[in-house]
Amino acid sequence: MIKIALADDHNLFAKGIEGILEDEDDMIVVKTFPNGKELVDFLGTQPIDVILTDLNMPVLDGFGVIAAVKKKFPEIKIVVLSMYDEEKIFKQVINDGADAFILKDADPDELIFTIHEVIKGHHVHNFEKVKKQAMQGVYFDGFRAKYRLSRRETEIISLIKDGIQNKEIAEKLSLSQQTIETHRKNIHVKLGVSSRIELVNKAYEMNL
């Protein structure tokens, strides 16, 4: 089991990542933190294999996390999750010792693949590949690219359109009801809707 710790000051995003990784049989998110200092303070209390960290956080940012972790726990792999695709930032992150860099709007499959790669001891340091993560048609079809929906989220939307409730969706997808509710919240934010009816109408409007 790959043990993961996540630091991001955007709670909704952190919960979304946690829900995505919960779907994987070989991964577990041990704990999430709103800033880098709380994550670094936690290390050493429990075994952690991979850290997922944002860059722009209060108290201690992602660069501080990388420096602290590489000094005290060099065996822990670090994957940076960022909205910044500037090459200068990418190079600094890699030079500081991060094992991988992923844009926040990359497909969830890319994140899962990257975690497996760094666990194997591989480094994901290709900036051109990073830039393509956000390009339409690389990891998303047109609809997913526009709204940044994951494959799991589009699957859930299809079931909601069929009138299926959260509990039944959870059973069909072999997920917890809490995970489905987290996905629902993320979908509402991404589509700009606030109710089931609005969600269904939006799905029909976009021919999903």
Give a quick summary of the entry.
With 208 residues, the chain is α/β, with parallel strands linked by helices.
Give me the secondary-structure topology:
Elements: E1 2-7, H1 11-22, E2 27-33, H2 36-42, E3 50-53, H3 62-72, E4 77-82, H4 87-96, E5 100-103, H5 108-119, H6 127-132, H7 142-147, H8 151-161, H9 166-173, H10 177-191, H11 196-205
Parallel strand pairs: 1-2, 1-3, 3-4, 4-5
Describe this structure in words.
By secondary structure, this protein is an alpha/beta fold. It has two domains: 131 residues, Rossmann fold; 64 residues, Winged helix-like DNA-binding domain superfamily/Winged helix DNA-binding domain (Arc Repressor Mutant, subunit A, Orthogonal Bundle), CATH 1.10.10.10. The chain has eleven helices and five strands. The protein has a five-stranded parallel beta sheet, with helices on both faces. It starts with a strand and ends with a helix.
What labels would you give this structure?
208 residues; Rossmann fold; Arc Repressor Mutant, subunit A; five-stranded parallel β-sheet; 11 helices; 52% helix; elongated
Low-pLDDT stretches? 134-145
Q: Percent range for helical residues?
A: 40-55%
Number of strands: 5
Order of strands across the main sheet: 2-1-3-4-5
CATH homologous superfamily of the largest domain - what is it?
A: Response regulator
* CATH class annotation of the largest domain: Alpha Beta
Helix-strand pattern: EHEHEHEHEHHHHHHH
**Cα distance, first to last residue?**
35 Å
Strand share of the residues? Answer: 5-15%
Structural class: alpha/beta
Query: Main β-sheet: number of strands, strand sense, barrel status?
Result: 5 strands, parallel
Shape: elongated
